[in-house]
Amino acid sequence: MTRILFVCLGNICRSPMAEFLFRDLVEKAGLADRFEVASAGTSSEEYGNPVYPPARRKLAEHGISCAGKTARQMTRADYDRYDLLIGMEQYHLSAMRRICGGDPAGKLHRLLDYTARPGDIDDPWYTGDFDTAWNEIEAGCRALLAQLAP
Description:
This protein is of the alpha/beta class. The protein has 6 helices and 4 strands.
């Protein structure tokens, strides 16, 4: 089983969209038993809050529910628990290294680095552009799945 933790700043927009989209992709591919998927934030400021309403709506537009999801902060223990810890932008990788005390096993990556267009996924909480964030997260999740389960 491959354990994946998607990570963003507050765990209310990008990382939950990635978590639930990736779960949907593996379920539709008949691979749900091969993956454990979760999400977390590098910050504690949104701890316990539900997925941000525009992110919930974007998931719902694609028939995906995130009911019951609340934000949590990433911990050092997550490094041992998960095989891959995937951030949405370079800043997250730096914060993840700080939280985990480094990355000796090479588990930390950015989601778009699995695609032909590596880079950061801008935070739609600030930009208001949930369409672009969704499209980039979907591209990253599809590329990640293609690499993990060809």
